[in-house]
Write a structure and sequence with these properties.
With about 290 residues, this protein is an alpha+beta fold. It folds into two domains: about 150 residues, 2-Layer Sandwich (Fructose-1,6-Bisphosphatase, Chain A, domain 1), CATH 3.30.540.10; about 120 residues, D-Maltodextrin-Binding Protein, domain 2, CATH 3.40.190.80. It contains eight helices and 14 strands. A seven-stranded mixed sheet has the order 3-4-5-6-7-8-9, with helices on both faces. Strands 11-10-12-14-13 form a five-stranded mixed sheet, with helices on both faces. Strand 8 and strand 9 form a beta hairpin. Helix 1 packs antiparallel against helix 2 and helix 5 packs across helix 8. The longest helix is centred in the N-terminal third of the chain and has 24 residues.
């Protein structure tokens, strides 16, 4: 188990290092940065690449027998394909999740790390540099925690949405354009909103600020999902597709060419899933 390998001292070091990387992102942005397009509507900065290298090297030093895969490492797809079913653990690193927010000076970007063990997400860290909040935990350490302003970790208590938050659903702008009318037809009184980082969107649901996060365009990749879904599962959220199938992390579930998920993704509280998943699926089938 992971928790036998991450003693309290190392756990503290990991949290401190992820915070250090996030604060470095703020500093480097202030100094100026370069942006390049690595794919259609997919941008990267020199800050992403610098932080990616720092994170990857440190985690490989900490866990030399594990596989470290990161967004900006050109060998990541090969590392994923070359591993056998006997691989102990994968560490997935996203140095800046929500690059568009980072580029435009908005606050909703994060540094993310996640652990995949036996092809299940078991541990994750999501750090928001601008608010200086680090969320971490999973089944591997039997709990969820929050660190604010670098202080001592406190237990994080997931909150089911109440009041108007029960009608709030996180949907990206792209998904709103493509599928928004279908979701509105299926979910009475629904209110859409969005923010940058995939991980921070998931945390909005964990904290009860929305009842679900619906992601339908199949562009999300392993380094986006492993950490946040480890936290979501430990929080008791349902992580499934529109057919009700649990989000998979095996070789058959992932496109090996770019490490994207084959499934549409819904992360939500059980009541929302029970009430609306089938209705949303039906409306989408009518498009």
């Amino acid at each position: 188990m992971i928790n036998t390998l991450i003693n309290p001292t190392l756990q503290t070091e990991i949290c401190q290092f992820i915070r250090e990387i996030g604060q470095k992102a703020i500093h480097l942005r202030e100094l100026g940065f370069q942006v390049t397009e690595k794919g259609f509507d997919d941008y990267v900065t020199n800050v992403d690449r610098e932080l990616d290298l720092l994170l990857s090297q440190r985690f490989q030093e900490w866990f030399p027998n594990d596989v470290v895969i990161s967004e900006e490492n050109l060998r990541s797809q090969a590392l994923w394909r070359q591993q056998s079913e006997l691989t102990k653990k994968f560490w997935f690193i996203d140095p800046i999740d929500g690059t568009d927010d980072f580029i435009h000076g908005r606050e909703f970007y994060s540094v993310m790390v996640g652990v995949l063990e036996a092809f299940q997400p078991v541990l994750g860290w999501v750090y928001a540099p601008k608010s200086d909040r680090l969320y971490f935990g999973g089944t591997a350490i039997n709990g969820l925690f929050i660190v604010t302003n670098g202080n001592i970790p406190e237990v994080l208590h997931p909150q089911a949405p109440i009041g108007s938050s029960r009608d709030r659903v996180i949907v990206s702008k792209k998904d709103d354009l493509a599928y928004g009318n279908a979701i509105r037809a299926a979910v009475p009184n629904v209110e859409f909103y969005s923010l940058g980082s995939f991980g921070l969107k998931v945390m909005e649901v964990v904290l009860g600020r929305a009842s679900a996060y619906i992601y339908l365009n199949r562009r999300v990749k392993l380094w986006d999902t492993v950490g946040p879904l480890a936290i979501a599962r430990a929080a008791g959220l349902v992580c499934c597709d529109l057919n009700g199938r649990e989000i998979g992390f095996g070789y058959d579930d992932i496109n090996p060419d770019n490490l994207t998920h084959n499934q549409m993704i819904v992360i939500g509280w059980q009541k929302f899933i029970d009430l609306y998943r089938e209705a949303i699926s039906k409306e989408l089938n009518n498009i």
